[in-house]
Design goal:
Elements: H1 5-10, H2 14-32, E1 40-41, E2 62-64, E3 69-76, H3 80-88, E4 96-100, H4 101-109, E5 116-122, E6 128-132, H5 133-136, E7 141-142, E8 153-157, H6 164-169
Parallel strand pairs: 3-5
Antiparallel strand pairs: 1-2, 2-3, 4-8, 5-6, 7-8
Length: 170
């Protein structure tokens, strides 16, 4: 099996990624009052430690038929202040959370953009935040986020991400 560059770079964090998905799954269930069987893992490798050769073409991590909603999990190990410092070095005055362009494009291609949320699980400060996927595309893209990467990322200001309770109200 050959791995793509993205997965090779994050191979040592794959188990951490699975834990982020478990946390996101629990938050989805708690936030929307869902039973375990109401949330379907749909992403290639979601909740699995298996390394795949093509995770970039994967559907979102979870689908909730009752809500007709998709959820894609991302993670960060920077606090808001650490993000502010990193962003400032690249001309962004506020802290940002980044969303890979390919994930947004895949949602567009599958006509699921308006029915999807990104979930950011942050190791550094213990937060879980949501962003309607269609809003990610409103922001500028950067090519410096993933060092040595080939992907571009939407730079979404931290303040635009929603706490779980605000998502439930929407």
């Amino acid at each position: 099996m050959t791995f793509n560059c993205f997965q090779e770079r994050y191979m040592n964090r794959w188990q951490e990624s699975n834990l982020c998905e478990e946390i996101a799954l629990r938050i989805i269930r708690l936030n929307f009052g869902l039973e375990p069987e109401d949330v379907l893992p749909t992403g290639k490798g979601a909740l699995s430690g298996e390394l795949l050769d093509d995770p970039l073409e994967s559907p979102p991590d979870f689908y909730v038929p009752k809500l007709n909603m998709w959820f894609e999990v991302t993670s960060s190990n920077l606090t808001s202040e650490e993000s502010r410092g990193r962003c400032a070095r690249h001309g962004l005055p506020a802290p940002h959370i980044f969303v890979r362009e390919g994930k947004v494009e895949l949602l567009k291609a599958n006509r699921a953009l308006s029915r999807a949320y990104f979930i950011s699980v942050n190791w550094a400060d213990g937060t879980v935040l949501f962003l309607p996927a269609r809003e990610a595309a409103r922001y500028d893209m950067v090519d410096w986020y993933e060092q040595g990467g080939r992907e571009r990322y939407y730079a979404v200001p931290w303040r635009e991400w929603l706490k779980p309770g605000r998502v439930r109200v929407r």
